[in-house]
Amino acid sequence: MKKPLAAMSLALLAGCAGEGAHYQNSHQAQQGLVFSVSDASYTLTPECTRSAEVDYDEAGRPMVVVSMKRSPECSEKAFETVFSKVGQHLNIEYGEQVLVQGSPIVSPMDPTSPFWTGVEDDALARDISNYLD
Q: Which domain of life is it from (predicted)?
């Protein structure tokens, strides 16, 4: 299941560039961070999150850095359901907010490795981090 972290990072960052969706308070529908492809989805909840923190890219834009716990019900299920789907397009959502839309999965991704997801603003980054951590 170990695959290049760079591929995962680039896939997630590439998918969020230019997303102009508006942040809506997700406290109403906090279900987790939803990773999906055309035929399956996996929802990351606090129970399967090893860490979630706010960081910033070189231009000062906020992002959330997340890693999953290594276990059959967490990382292995995420890998089988979504992260192994080479050739499909990855979507990531949080509540009503689309964070990544249609980012191609070019190689299998290790969900236990930290990955970065760009977000619209600091408030959303903190909301996701606080919910998952």
A: Bacteria
Token pair 């809506």 in the structure block, residue = 24
**Euclidean distance between CA atoms 23 and 81, whole angstroms:** 27
Backbone conformation region of residue 121, classed left if phi is above 0, alpha if psi is from -120 to 50, else beta: beta
CA distances from 29 to 22, 90, 91 (A): 15, 21, 18
Total residue length of the chain: 133
Question: Per the structure block, which two tokens stand in for 105?
Answer: 């999965």
Quickly name the fold that domain 5-132 has.
Answer: Gyrase A; domain 2 (3.30.1360)
Quick: pLDDT tens for 25-76: 444 345 899 999 999 999 999 999 999 999 999 999 999 999 999 999 999 9
Q: Where are the domains of the chain?
A: 5-132
Name which of 3, 19, 15 is nearest 89 in CA terms.
Answer: 15
